[in-house]
Structures are given as C-alpha cells and as structure tokens.
C-alpha cells in the first residue's frame, strides 16, 4: 500500500490567471497526483475539492544485471530481479537477445571489391530490433534497413561476415558466413531496362558495350519489401539478352539487376556460372495491380440480441492498394425464402472493425457474414462466417384468458409469445389487486411459475369478490422477460367473515328485545340477507332479511337468553324452535300424536276412535306435549304448515283439543326446465347469455342455483339471480348447459341445452410456404389454421398487399412477377365472420437474363490510356456476377459485379478504340449498345489526380485539386471542364448547378509540350425543394359503363431536385346546383410514393378538381388544380312513381317526376304498363326524352299499373315504384243477339250473354220485340223485358206468327243493342 503525502504548493499567482502548466520531468511516471485550488481574500482562504491525475507509464528503470551460475556442462542458469522502478502497472515481458539472426543468408559480390549483404528480421527477435551491424562494425543501420553494400580494399579475398541484431537486451549474433570475392570479372556492366507486362510478369532487356558472345548472364531479382524471405532470385539466361520473369507478386516493387559472368573453363555456350561476375546497376519496377486474394472470413462475436461485433484482417495478398471493405449479411437458415444478402457496411481501408446494430437483426437467430476487400482491379470475397445473436426479451406476449373458478382461485390460459427471441424456459403469472385509490400503486405479486410446456394454470391465494389485474411473463433461458398487458378478473363470492356481535336493546314489556348489528368486516360479496337463529338446536332462522334490526318476541320476563347472529351468502340455514312439541317429520308426512283417553266405566278402559281434521294455516301456535295416539298423515305438500286438533267422542258427546301447528320439511324442487341459451346482442363469439326460470314447485326455500357447462366446475348463483353471461368461450363450439336448483331438502337438475357460439375469424394463420418456381412464378402452399373458429370459406393470397389469389384450395401457382425481385407474401383465411392475415414472408424470384445495358462512358486519361466506366443494366434480373470489357472485339478485362470501371493502359497514342461491356448473371448476359469509340491523346503530362468535390448546397459545388505528380514542364494552366484557371489556382466554387444532380469533373493541365487530363470524379449536389410540378391528369377508366372511380395520375416535378419521398394528393368537389354553388373544402385523399391513384370515393356525375404535392428531403412543391373533370354516370337514384292527368275512358296522360339524384344526363324515359289484375309482365309502351306521355287505346273502367324507368347512359337505368290509374266508364258494346231456347204457340223463351265490353257496371237489360205486321203499317216495337237477368219468357204471343227481337244493355254512360233475331210461334 502507498500512503499519500502531504500537499505541496506548486503555484501561486494573480487572481486573473486560471491555468497552470506542470513540468512533466518533475513528476514520477505512473504516479497519481491530487490537486486543489485555494483562493484567498481579505476574510480568509477557501479551497476546492480535489481532482486527481495519473501520469502515463514509462520505461522501467533500475534494471540490475542478472546473476548466473553454471553446472560445468553445457548450460548456464540466469537469475534476475524486477526493476527497482517499474514505472508501470505490470511488466509485460523480460527481453532476451535476438535469435535466428541472418537466416537465410544472402550475399552477392557485385564486382572485384563490392559485395551486397542482405538480411531479414531475425526468426525470433524477442523484442523490438533497435539496429543491425555486421561484424567488426563495418556498418550500423536502422532497424528498418535490411541491406548493406560493403567495399573491400583487396580483391580476390575471402571475407567473413557476421550480422548482429540488437534489442533492449543486447546483441544477437548470426553464424559466420564466408564470401569469396571474384578473381576476374567482365570489364563492363550490363545496362538493364524492364517492362511490366502484367501483375505477375516483367520483361527484362539489357545491353553490354562489349561483345557479348563471351559471357553468360543471370537476372538478379530482389523484392524491395524487406519482409519477404526470398532475398535473392537468380535466373540464368545463358547468352540471351532478354528474359521474361514470371510468378511475381502483383503491385510489388522489384529491384532487377543483370550480372555478366565469365564462363568457366570448358563451359559450353549457354552454361551459366555465378562466380566472377560483374553486376550492373539496378532498375526498380512495380508490377501491375491485380484483384486481391486470400481474404479470410471475419471474426464474429454476438454482443446482444441485436448487435454483432465484426472484425477482419487485410487479405494475405492485397495485390494493390485496398480501396475499402464491404460487409454482407444473410440469414443462415432462412425458412421458405431465398436468402437475401444485404450490404451492411462499406468503409475505408484502415478500418477493420464494425458493430452491426441493424434494427432488422432478430435475437437468437443465426446469421452469416462475409467481408469483401476491393481494389481498383477487383475484389476478394471471404467465406461466410456464422454467428448467432444472443437471446433478448420476448415480445408479442398476449394477455391471458382468465376465468374465476372460486372465491380464492383463477384459471389462466395463454399463448406462446409471437416473437420468443430465444428459448422460453418458463412462464410467470403476476397479479395485483385493483385498489380504490389510484394514487397508491398496489404491489405486484408473483402468483405462479410454470415450465414452458404449460400454457394454462390455476393460481390461488386470492381474496373473495375482489378485482385483480393479471399478466403473463415469458422468461427465456437468458433470464430476459417479456410481459403481456394487464387483464382484469374478479373472484367469486364467499361466505362473509368477521361477523359483528349482536347489540341487544331491552323492551320495557319484558317479552321482547330489539336486536341490531353492523355489516361484516369482510362481506366477501354482496350481502343477500341476514339470518337470526335461536341457540342450540336451531335449524330454521327466526328472521331473514336485509334490514339490520329485528324484534325478538315470545320471551319470558326476567329470563336470561343467548343468541347467535350468523350470516350466509347464498347458503340458508334452517332451525326449529327449541321447545317444539313435534318429532322429526318426513318431507310429505306428519305424525299426529293423540291423547290416550280412558274412562272408568265398568272398571274397564273404553278406547275412543280418532277423527282427523286438517287445514293449512299461516300462523304458528304451538301447544305443549301430551300422551297421544300415533297417526301418520300422508299426501302432504313439502315445506307447508298444517294445523291439527283431536276430537274425543263418547255416547254423551265430544270434546276438541286446541289446534296444533306443524310444518313439513323441505324437499328437492320439482318442474325445473332446461336453461335458455341465447347469443349476445353484440354477436360476440366468446360469450353466451344463459337464463332460467324458477322451478314450478320450489318445495322449500331456494338456496342456490348451479349452472353446469359440460363437465366443468359448476357456477354457483344466489336464488334471486336468474341470468348469467358465460364469457371466455371458444368460437364456433358447441356448449351444453344444465341448471340445478337446490333447497335444504335437496337439488334437482334440468335437462341440457346445447348451443353453438358464433363464428369468428381464425385465431392464428401461419405464413404460407412460398418457393420460387422460376423467374416469374411463385409456388405457394399453406396449411389450414389450427384454430379455425368456424368454417373456412375462402383463402386469399396477398403479394405486396395486392390480392393475387382467392379460393378454397391450399396451393396455387402465382405468376406475372418480375425476375429476381423480393416480394412479400401473406395468407388470409376467412370464415363467415371475418378474416385473419398471417405475417408476411419474403421470397425472391429466380434470376432472369439481364437487359438494358447502356453504352459505357469513355474518358481519355492520357496518350496511352482510356478510362472505361459503365452502369449496371437497367434490368439486372439477378446478381451481376461479372463484367467483360472488350476492346475492338478483344477481351481485355474481366471483373466481378461490384466493379464498374476499367483503366485500359498501354494504348497507342492517337489511335481510335472501340469498347463494348458485357454483363453476366447466372442466367445469361447482355451487351452494351451501341459500341462507343474514343481516340487517345497525342501526348500529355502524367499523374494528374481527379479533383476533390464537396457539395456546398443544391446549386454550388466546391472543386479542389493538386498539381500533377509528373508535371513534365512548367504548368501553364488548369482547365476544369469547362472553366480555365491559372497555374496557381487550386480550388473553385462552381455555381449555377442543378440540385441533386450527378456532376463529373475532371482537370486538364498543359505544358508547352502538351496536356494531360485527370480521371473523372463524380459528386452529387445537395437536395433542394422540387419545382415545376404539373397538375395531375384525371380520367374515367371505362367509358360508356358504370364508373364510380376516377384514375388520377401525375408526373414527377420537372425539377425533382432530389429524391421524391412521397406525394400528397388533394381533391375538392365543385358544387353547382339550385341550392349551392362553389367548392367544397380541400381534402387530403392519398399519401403515396406512386404516381397514380384510383379514387373510388366519388359521387357520380360530379365535378372534381385534383391537386398534387411532392416532397423530397429539402422541401415541397404543390401543383395547380387540375382541370375540372366530371365523374362517370350511374343509374338515377330515387325515381318516383308517375302522376296522372286527363284521365278518360280510353286515354290518360302520364307525367314522370324528376328523380332524387339524376347521376348523369337523363337520356331516356320509358313508360311500363299492364292491367292490374293481369299476371303478365309490365310491358314498355312508350319511351322518349319527355316527361309527359299520353297513353291511348285503353279499356274503359280498367285499373292499370304504370311505372317510369329513367336511363342515363346505355343500360344505366332505374325503374321507380308503380302508380295505379283507373279509366272512366263508357257505353257498353259487343252485345250479341238473343238465343231462342223454347217456342210454343203463345210463349217464347229467350236468353242472351253479357256484352263483350260492358265498359262499366250494367245497370239493366231490355228485350224488345215487334208484333205481327199489319198490312201497309209498321209493326210497333214493344219492351218485352227490363231487368238484370240474362233470360226471359215472352208470353201471350199470337200463334203461328213471326216475331223479331233484340237485346239492349245499359250502364251509367249509355247503352248498346244487339242485332235483330227472328222466331215463329
């Protein structure tokens, strides 16, 4: 332990200085110091609280040399002590000298007096290497220098070298290596040049000023990266003056030299010797970049339910400059969907860690991650690495279903959490009492804990007739809890407790007392009645009622009594009077005890016969006991009072006893009918309403009703309750109910009533099984819901909330999809009472052949290079796995689908090149169209970087640049396309740009010898409010038909100035009628990302205007109102019955009234008519565009049924109710001639028929006849009959005489006559 020292003043200064700089050298390393500030005024000194700081660690000091000992053989034991001042918390290690120095060994004699020594870091450095030094200190170098060229003073010698590497513990020495210097070397050194051909190939050429046929050559290749252990690589070439070096590392700088060697004696041409060589000057060449390789999969660690820590390393072979890293994620074991890879991160090349906290992560789910490293030449993709997220608190815990089973217990049932987010280990039931004071939170009590395989339990320990809140807690194996909402339940009633004592108030008469009492401290329900009993043998109460006061009479003055005050809810106790003179009776009988009466007449007993008199009474007067005869009276009603008396008769007369009262016992009720079960008015599927009637014969005092549902525990009800609503039932389930009525004499159970609850939507619908069948079809199947809650009448399959299938099958093939698109599919199952939709599942269609590959962009970057950039196909229809770039029909580049750029080098200046880019996915390819061409520059400086772009607003971009790496002359100017600047200007803020547009910028810089252009750089300006939004277009989708919708469409703003996030569509209705004129209030009817909307909430034949509002991330713009559009026509509404004018016997004028709403232009008005008493259909008699129509050719005195039909467009017609009209009467017509039925000498019998058209009510009929003609005179016409009959007899005629006759019929409007008939008597 370290004891603190006392405070020392380290600074004293003026009052206006508030800082102090302590000197680091005066403080000890890794030591904590406390500081306080003291302020002094005239009154005194005040001090602050202390602040502490710990100094950083430093190197240890006071390291003593080790002690050593030897056993004399081949080992030394070293012992040492810790430093006296460690200056840190823990000594990380104790260093020893480096080991494995100069392994492997590499030396290269350059000529007669120079030799190259090359080395790498020791095999075991045992700490940080501070310096290297060859033996005899010919060189002392930095720890990052791995070569030395030694110059010796005498040629042809053998030199010995030993390398030393020093760390903090001292020098580690290598073995001694011999170097034999050449005896003789060629007089000249080769001059070498190198050309890089590819990422792994360099071509080397060299020259020698002397004749070359005498010498042999070898190429010396040395990697400039000192970390590589291949220090030297010798490639003999014989006498050739060129060599292609292969198997090199991409993007690596090589030091290449050529040695010319003297051939050994007897060597033939082409045989190389590495002795006696003269090594030429080196040239440095860097191989081209290549796609990286060897990307290891990332290291994953789940840190939470929605957090994964991801770490990765640089690829083992970067093969270029790493531009950045991408991370992709997918589900390890997706169900029913194609796994979707999501890019979750793209970062710079110096970051090797990322924490994935995507909200889409699901707890306790296995995911796979891969890392992609990218360079300008391509990518390296690692294998997938897997990790499972940790468990998290369950969510979607539904409230329990509760049923009170007694006064102290509740049954709870529940479902598993919708999202368990782990393995559910147990369920916990918690409850809290609902108090009267909402400001005092009640304590939460754990009722019960059950294992996860149970979904129902009964918990007790509750108070009777008390309301509780109950909830379910799902606990997973990680101890995390998910809580449901509270649900209310109330326990059943129980018998009261803590009943108060009676208070007794004496009555002055001494024969009664007033009993009073308080309510029970714990009523445990609703108090139905209070019962008072007499002590000891009491079974029937002497008082029952709700009033808490009773006058107890029949007491004897100056006598001590003891009473019990008992309560029962709803149980009823019975008692009899203590001094009763009656024995126990059967429910329907009573034992009459009669007196044994005797007389002493003749010294013998004379038994008297017993006569019974019975009457039903209501008052109770009890006489004392006597010695009596026994007699059993049967056939009595239970629970009924009867009075008896005894009459004793002798020959001299009789005598009667007083009346004695007795009450029969209670018996089970009789005549209880089955309960009436009805459905609730709200059509709830989870409840039934049960009611019942009292028994026809109670046979006692009703105590309770028991309602039995199936085999469940019966519900208990007091005798005054005849109705109960049973809740918590299952939909579409048969339930059986019976009612039991109980008295003190027993119980009687009714017949059962069976009722089925209403249907309900299915309780849970599992997601469908969706499998991609091809690029445009999805095979979909599903299972029926486990709990159907009714009869499934149809299934509906929704794709992206659009109905794609409806029917009763459990599988279907969905078609007409786009390739390689992710769709959300949900299943909806419907009963007659509703539908339930599953959670959606996502599925991706299979890939299709890509299309829409636009031509690449060509950008000449120099005399020898062209930059080729391209965009992905407009319809990739899958994952683009590679791109091919073809130059003049020749394949020059293959890259994966993430690269969209290729720099084509080694081109010929001033030459035109044609390029085509081909995109591939797993199903096929598409070529860019049309081929594009570009010509390289003649000459240019080199190394001009693309400008740096920084958007400053929606219309300004800050452009900055640097001078080229190789100016190749005096820079004259810079041209930023399309601006020109002086050679000293390196930035410019460019204005007048369009918001949220991609702008490509590149530089051109020129010298006197030519110009060079940089690569292009792209940047997008910031967003600005959209402008120039045209009003929407509104059309009726189907002409000449009933159309209650309007199709509204619009185009994006001409200047979106960003990404349009959504559109608001407004509508207003134009009113123009006799009652009002103007426009209704502007209403928002849609918030959408689409540019079309179907408005199906319009009034037919009404004028509307629409307005659209577009919004991006910076602001909004609103269009003007669209031109008014008239909604489609519809059949008229409210066509009234017609009215009638100008009614005659054969015509009527029909007038059609205007409908309540025309819903269009009334084009046709049709009149339908029929006779009212006819069974024929109404026929169309006339039509037109008028409102009044005359109907002619009618029958007089006939009732017609007339209706009006109005039509707007085509078949859009509405027929109104019928009106009734009766034509006026007219003279009859169509009277046929009479028929002679019988003729005699003086009589003639005639008959006739009714007129075919009576045209009213026939009031009378007449028969006219003519007498025999008198010579030269017209015979007179005589009315032979007048009346309503259709026959008559003409009498008193002249025999053998011809008579003419006819019939006339009359109504109130006239008459008609028949033709004349003739007959001869």
From TrEMBL:
Pfam families: fn3. SUPFAM superfamilies: Fibronectin type III. InterPro entries: FN3_dom (IPR003961), FN3_sf (IPR036116), Ig-like_fold (IPR013783), RTP_Phos/Ushers (IPR050713). Gene3D superfamilies: Immunoglobulins. Residues 186-282, 294-395, 396-497, 498-587, 674-760, 764-848, 852-942, 1031-1133, 1134-1229, 1230-1321 form the Fibronectin type-III domain. PROSITE patterns: FN3. This is Fibronectin type-III domain-containing protein. It comes from Ciona savignyi.
């Amino acid at each position: 332990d370290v004891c603190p020292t006392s405070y020392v003043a380290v600074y004293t200064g003026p009052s206006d200085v508030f800082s102090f700089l302590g000197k680091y050298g005066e403080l000890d390393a890794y030591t904590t110091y406390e500081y306080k500030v003291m302020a002094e005024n005239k009154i005194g000194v005040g001090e602050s609280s202390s602040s502490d700081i710990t100094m950083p660690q430093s190197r240890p000091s006071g390291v003593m040399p080790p002690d050593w000992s030897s056993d004399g053989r081949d080992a030394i034991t070293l012992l040492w002590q810790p430093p006296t001042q460690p200056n840190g918390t823990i000594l990380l290690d104790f260093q020893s000298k480096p080991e494995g120095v100069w392994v492997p060994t590499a030396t290269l004699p350059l000529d007669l007096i120079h030799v190259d020594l090359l080395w790498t870091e020791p095999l075991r450095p045992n700490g940080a290497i501070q310096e290297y030094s060859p033996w005899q200190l010919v060189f002392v170098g930095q720890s990052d220098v791995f070569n030395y060229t030694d110059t010796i003073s005498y040629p042809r010698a053998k030199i010995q070298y030993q390398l030393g590497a020093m760390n903090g513990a001292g020098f580690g020495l290598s073995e001694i290596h011999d170097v034999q210097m050449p005896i003789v070397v060629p007089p000249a050194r080769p001059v070498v040049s190198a050309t890089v051909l590819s990422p792994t190939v360099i071509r080397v050429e060299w020259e020698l000023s002397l004749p070359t046929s005498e010498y042999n050559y070898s190429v010396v290749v040395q990697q400039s990266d000192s970390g590589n252990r291949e220090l030297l690589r010798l490639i003999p070439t014989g006498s050739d003056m060129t060599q292609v070096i292969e198997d090199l590392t991409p993007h690596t700088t090589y030091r290449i030299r050529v040695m010319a060697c003297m051939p050994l004696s007897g060597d033939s041409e082409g045989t190389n010797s590495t002795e006696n060589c003269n090594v030429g000057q080196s040239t440095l060449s860097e191989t081209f970049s290549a796609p990286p390789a060897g990307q290891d999969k990332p290291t994953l660690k789940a840190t939470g339910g929605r957090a994964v820590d991801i770490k990765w390393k640089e690829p083992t072979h970067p093969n270029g400059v790493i531009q950045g890293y991408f991370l992709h994620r997918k589900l390890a074991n997706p169900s029913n969907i194609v796994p979707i890879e999501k890019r979750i991160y793209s970062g710079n090349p110096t970051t090797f860690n990322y924490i994935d906290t995507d909200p889409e992560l699901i707890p306790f789910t296995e995911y796979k991650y891969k890392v992609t490293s990218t360079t300008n030449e391509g990518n390296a993709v690692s294998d997938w690495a897997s990790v499972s997220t940790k468990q998290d608190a369950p969510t979607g815990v539904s409230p329990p279903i509760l049923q009170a089973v007694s006064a102290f217990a509740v049954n709870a049932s529940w479902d598993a959490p919708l999202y368990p987010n782990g393995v559910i280990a147990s369920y916990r039931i918690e409850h809290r009492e609902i108090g009267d004071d909402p400001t005092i939170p009640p304590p939460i009590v754990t009722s019960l804990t059950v294992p996860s395989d149970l979904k129902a339990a009964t918990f007790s320990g509750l108070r009777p007739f008390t309301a509780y809140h109950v909830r379910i807690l799902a606990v997973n194996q990680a101890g995390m809890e998910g809580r449901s909402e509270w649900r209310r339940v109330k326990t059943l009633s129980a018998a009261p407790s803590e009943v108060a004592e009676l208070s007794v108030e004496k009555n002055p008469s001494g024969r009664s007392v007033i009993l009073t009492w308080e309510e029970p401290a714990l009523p445990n329900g609703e108090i139905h009645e209070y019962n008072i009993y007499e002590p000891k043998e009491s079974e029937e109460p002497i008082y029952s009622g709700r009033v808490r006061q009773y006058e107890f009479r029949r007491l004897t003055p100056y006598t001590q009594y003891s009473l019990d005050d008992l309560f029962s809810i709803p149980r009823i106790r019975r008692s009899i009077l203590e001094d009763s003179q009656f024995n126990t009776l059967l429910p329907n009988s009573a034992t009459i005890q009669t007196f044994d009466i005797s007389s002493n007449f003749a010294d013998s007993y004379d038994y008297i016969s017993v006569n019974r008199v019975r009457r039903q009474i209501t008052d109770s007067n009890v006489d004392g006991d006597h010695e009596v005869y026994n007699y059993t009276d049967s056939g009595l009603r239970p629970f009924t009072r009867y009075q008896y008396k005894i009459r004793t008769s002798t020959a001299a007369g009789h005598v009667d006893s007083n009346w004695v009262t007795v009450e029969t016992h209670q018996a089970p009720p009789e005549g209880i009918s089955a309960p009436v079960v009805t459905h609730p008015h709200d059509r709830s599927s989870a409840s039934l309403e049960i009611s019942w009637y009292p028994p026809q014969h109670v046979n006692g005092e009703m105590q309770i009703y028991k309602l039995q549902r199936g085999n469940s525990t019966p519900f208990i009800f007091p005798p005054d309750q005849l109705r109960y609503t049973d809740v918590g039932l299952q939909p579409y389930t048969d339930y059986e109910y019976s009612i039991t009525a109980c008295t003190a004499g027993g119980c009687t159970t009714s017949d059962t009533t069976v009722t089925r609850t209403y249907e309900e939507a299915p309780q849970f619908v599992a997601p469908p099984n969706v499998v991609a069948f091809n690029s445009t079809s999805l095979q979909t199947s599903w299972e029926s819901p486990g709990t159907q809650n009714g009869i499934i009448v149809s299934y509906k399959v929704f794709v992206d909330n659009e109905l794609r299938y409806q029917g009763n099958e459990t599988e279907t093939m969905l078609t007409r999809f786009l390739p390689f698109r992710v769709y959300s599919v949900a299943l909806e199952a419907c009963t007659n009472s509703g539908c339930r939709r599953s959670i959606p599942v996502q599925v991706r269609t299979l890939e299709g052949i890509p299309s829409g590959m636009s031509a690449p962009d060509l950008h000449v970057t120099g005399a020898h290079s062209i930059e080729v950039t391209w965009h992905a196909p407009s319809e990739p229809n899958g994952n683009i796995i590679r791109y091919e770039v073809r130059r003049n029909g020749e394949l020059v580049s293959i890259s994966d689908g993430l690269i969209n750029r290729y720099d084509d080098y080694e081109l010929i200046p001033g030459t035109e090149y044609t390029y085509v880019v081909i995109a591939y996915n797993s199903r096929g390819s598409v070529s860019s169209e049309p081929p594009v061409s570009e010509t390289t520059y003649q000459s240019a400086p080199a190394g001009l970087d693309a400008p740096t772009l920084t958007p400053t607003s929606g219309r300004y971009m800050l452009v900055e640049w640097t001078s080229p790496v190789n100016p190749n002359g005096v820079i004259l100017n810079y041209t930023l396309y399309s601006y020109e600047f002086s050679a000293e200007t390196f930035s410019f803020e460019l204005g007048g740009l369009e918001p949220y547009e991609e702008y490509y910028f590149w530089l051109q810089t020129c010298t006197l010898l030519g110009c060079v252009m940089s690569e292009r750089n792209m940047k997008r300006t910031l967003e600005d409010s959209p402008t120039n939004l045209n009003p929407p277009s509104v059309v009726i989708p189907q002409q000449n038909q009933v159309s209650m919708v309007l199709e509204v469409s619009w185009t994006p703003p001409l200047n979106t100035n960003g990404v349009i996030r959504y559109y608001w569509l407004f509508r207003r209705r134009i009113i123009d009628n006799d009652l009002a004129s103007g426009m209704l209030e502007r209403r928002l009817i849609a918030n959408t990302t689409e540019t079309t909307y179907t408005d199906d909430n319009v009034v037919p034949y009404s004028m509307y205007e629409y307005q659209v509002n577009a919004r991006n991330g910076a602001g909004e713009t609103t269009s003007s109102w669209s031109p008014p559009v008239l909604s489609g026509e519809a059949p008229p509404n409210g066509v009234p019955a017609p009215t009638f004018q100008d009614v005659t016997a054969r015509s009527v004028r029909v007038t059609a009234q205007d409908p309540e709403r025309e819903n269009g232009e009334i084009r046709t008005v049709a009149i339908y008519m029929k006779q009212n008493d006819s069974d024929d259909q109404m026929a169309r008699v006339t039509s037109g565009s008028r409102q009044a129509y005359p109907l002619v050719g009618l029958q007089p005195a006939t009732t017609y049924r007339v209706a009006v039909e109005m039509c707007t467009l085509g078949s859009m017609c509405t027929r109104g109710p019928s009106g009734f009209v009766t034509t006026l009467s007219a003279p009859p017509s169509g009277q046929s001639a009479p028929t002679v039925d019988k003729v005699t000498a003086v009589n003639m019998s005639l008959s006739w028929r009714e007129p075919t058209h009576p045209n009213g009510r026939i009031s009378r009929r007449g028969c006219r006849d003519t007498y025999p003609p008198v010579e030269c005179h017209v015979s007179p016409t005589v009315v032979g009959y007048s009346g309503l009959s259709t026959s008559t007899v003409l009498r008193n005629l002249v025999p053998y005489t011809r008579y003419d006759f006819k019939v006339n019929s009359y109504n109130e409007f006239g008459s008609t006559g028949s033709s004349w008939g003739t007959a001869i008597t």
